[in-house]
Amino acid sequence: MGGEPVGPAVLEGEIHLAYRWTTGPATGAFLTALRDRGVILGLRCPSCRRVLCPPLEVCPRCGTETAGEVECGPGGRVTAWTLVEAPTPWTPWEAPYALISVRLDGASTDLVHAVTEGARRVRTGARVKAVFRTVGRRVGDILDLEGFAVE
Amino acid sequence: MEPVAIVASAQTEHAAARPGLEPAEMVHRTVRGCLEAAGVAIADVDAVVSAGDDVLDGRSISNVFVAEAYGAFLKEEAKVEEDGAWALIYALLKLWSGACRTALVVGYSKGSECGPGAYSHLQCEPFYLRPLGADGVQLAALQARRFLDRSGLDEGHAAWVASKNRADGERNDRAVLRSAVSPREVAASGVLASPVRRLEVAPVTDGCCAVLVAVEEEARRRTPRPAWVRGVAHAAEVYYPGHRDLADTTACRVAARRAYEAAGVDDPGRAFQVAEVHSEVAHQELMLYEALGLGEARALVDEGATALGGRIPVNPSGGPLCANPIMATGLVRVAEAALQVSGQAGAHQVEGARRAVAHAAGGLCMQSSAVFVLEGSP
Prior knowledge:
A: mainly beta, B: Peroxisomal Thiolase, Chain A, domain 1, two-stranded antiparallel sheet
């Protein structure tokens, strides 16, 4: 391949893009219920009967449009966890915190979120409970669910 | 279907960063090396398919910036925004359809330019995952925990895999990391996201891989040692990590079953002399042993069977843990497997390698898998 040429200096740059992401009927309903009612919504797939939480408009396995809101949680069981010691620059929490997948009560799938209280005590099978942003400070994003506390 | 073969391949000497080489130059040098190895002029190539990534390149429709460098002028040219292994599948379909007789496949990226963390963070959809600041390593750590819980294996098995890859990669002059590390050093290398440690994660890499494929007549004309593509298949799991069981490798199993059927492989545990698999975090290699039917992960590790010199070496090149040019990492697996079955792998050649399985992965936590069965010429 020949020798590496001595190149000019790199050009440093950044890309900043503003988006307006449409949330749609499933994610939109989830975020609205979270903001306005402090409720975690799932949607049921009429074909496989599973409750998808977080919900999607279409069941990713069956390809069927989901219908029928189901309130899930606020409690659940940890199905997998990781104690994050080297966070990315985009993480809202101080390390160490735990990322978990949690099977909320009433759901057939897992939500991926964080343990913000008792991160070092999190284990597979541990019971956790949702912690919500204070009423009046909710904005309609997933962090209206601040995280989970280990029970 | 008409037999098709890998005629030649070339890789860069993958590096942690190549500030002197712009992507088009890096791609051009690699393609030139591939064509020279085959004794083929670019005029003899009917079609080119590339795999690059707009986010990694920082340019929309990023292939237009490198297409001319890989010889696309007035040819059938297309890009897949998947690993180069999927670009290879596209090229193979062109051969099998009769649309062309010789095709060139290119995968490349310069991971050093924006960082693999940013790239995999942007693979997270903006509603549920991205606000958590997650990236591919953190989500793979959830997968590792789930897999260890489910399998009863422990962190020592994953550390052994990392150490094994680094020891084998020492012989591969294209690898980024070319120094052995002990399982003890892996264990002491610092937790990124438990149970995943720094030395269990693929390194940031700038690199490119080019592969030339052709129908039988062309392949035989160009090389005495074609690597025949006997079976190919791919399958995808659902996207969101919470909507699937992260320890489940069904997509890979389905792809393997289809590829093995096409290749007439009945007993994958005995059919292959070598495997190259796309595991960017050490535990994934353990998952893939079983998904590809190579054997039970615990037994293979206990026996040391997957190390170079073992019964079924897996990633004798050192694998992605020694060089991970995103968008080319899976294609490199296929190229390495082709080198093995044609007896051209050099210092990391597996003695007597006649049939190989190569695996490529895509997406978060190996959402997608592609499986290739390659055979050398008798």
